[in-house]
Amino acid sequence: MGKFEYSLGLNELKSKEQRLWQALIGEFLGNLILNFFACGACTQVEDGTFKALAFGLAIFMAITIVGHLSGGHVNPAVTAGMLVAGRISLIRAIFYVVFQCLGAIAGTAAVKILIDQDYYNGLGHTSLATNISELQGLGIEFFLGLLLVLVVFGACDPHKPDSRYTAPLAIGMAVTLGHLGTIRYTGASMNPARTVGTAFATDNWTSHWVYWVGPVLGGVAAALLYTQVLEAKPVPKANEASEKYRTHADEREMRKLEGARDYA
C-alpha cells in the first residue's frame, strides 16, 4: 500500500516537507508570466520573430524564477512527459496542469483588463492558418511538443550536470525556435495551458483539442525516446574508476607471473 501511495502521490498530500503548495504557486506564476508578457507582446506587432523572442524570453524568465520550486514545467506537455518517465507522481501532475491553466488564464485576463480593446489584436490566441487542416495542425503541434520536451530532458539529464546551468536558456531557445518555424501555421502553441488562457479570454475554442492532443503526445513521445534511447550514461565515480584500473593492473601482473612460470 505504501508503494502505491508513493507512485500515486498521496504521500505528497500528507507530507509537510514536500511543499507541494509552493510548487503549485510556482507553476501558476510561471504561466502567468508567460501569458502576460508573451501574449502582451502579440498585441503590439504582427512580426513572427518578435513574438518568437517574446515567448522564448518569457519561458527563460519563468523557469529561472520558479524552477527550484516546481521543476519549472510551465507546460502540461512537459508535465505529461515527466509523468510518463516516472519523474513525478500522478496527483502532482494533475495539480500542476490545473494550476498551469489557471495561471495562463490569469495572465491573459490581466492583459485584457489593462489595455484598451483597440489594442487586443487577438490577445495572442493561437489558431490554424486558412489552408492548414486540423490533422496538419495536430502534426505540427506534435513536433513542437517533441522538440520542447526533448530539450527539457536533455537539459535536465542528471548524468549531464553541466547542462543544468544553461537549462532555462536552452528551454527558452527551444520555444523561440518552435515559434520561428511554425508560428504562421498554428500559432506555435507548444503549450496547452497557454492556449487555454487566450481561448478563455477571447471565448474562441475552435480546434482547441489540437492544442492539447498535439503537444501532449509529442511530450510523451519525447520522454520515451529520451529515457529509452538518448539518456546519458552515468559517469563512473573516482573510486570506481580507480578500482577498475587496479583490477586491470592486477590482471596484467598475474599474466606476467604466469608467463614467467611457463618459461621456467
UniProtKB/TrEMBL annotation:
<dbReference type="GO" id="GO:0016324">
    <property type="term" value="C:apical plasma membrane"/>
</dbReference>
<keyword id="KW-0472">Membrane</keyword>
<keyword id="KW-0812">Transmembrane</keyword>
<feature type="transmembrane region" description="Helical">
    <location>
        <begin position="165"/>
        <end position="185"/>
    </location>
</feature>
<dbReference type="InterPro" id="IPR023271">
    <property type="entry name" value="Aquaporin-like"/>
</dbReference>
<protein>
    <submittedName>
        <fullName>Uncharacterized protein, isoform A</fullName>
    </submittedName>
</protein>
<feature type="transmembrane region" description="Helical">
    <location>
        <begin position="135"/>
        <end position="153"/>
    </location>
</feature>
<dbReference type="InterPro" id="IPR034294">
    <property type="entry name" value="Aquaporin_transptr"/>
</dbReference>
<feature type="region of interest" description="Disordered">
    <location>
        <begin position="240"/>
        <end position="264"/>
    </location>
</feature>
<feature type="transmembrane region" description="Helical">
    <location>
        <begin position="50"/>
        <end position="69"/>
    </location>
</feature>
<dbReference type="GO" id="GO:0015250">
    <property type="term" value="F:water channel activity"/>
</dbReference>
<dbReference type="GO" id="GO:0016323">
    <property type="term" value="C:basolateral plasma membrane"/>
</dbReference>
<keyword id="KW-0813">Transport</keyword>
<feature type="transmembrane region" description="Helical">
    <location>
        <begin position="90"/>
        <end position="115"/>
    </location>
</feature>
<dbReference type="InterPro" id="IPR000425">
    <property type="entry name" value="MIP"/>
</dbReference>
<feature type="transmembrane region" description="Helical">
    <location>
        <begin position="20"/>
        <end position="38"/>
    </location>
</feature>
<keyword id="KW-1133">Transmembrane helix</keyword>
<feature type="transmembrane region" description="Helical">
    <location>
        <begin position="209"/>
        <end position="227"/>
    </location>
</feature>
<comment type="similarity">
    <text>Belongs to the MIP/aquaporin (TC 1.A.8) family.</text>
</comment>
<dbReference type="Pfam" id="PF00230">
    <property type="entry name" value="MIP"/>
</dbReference>
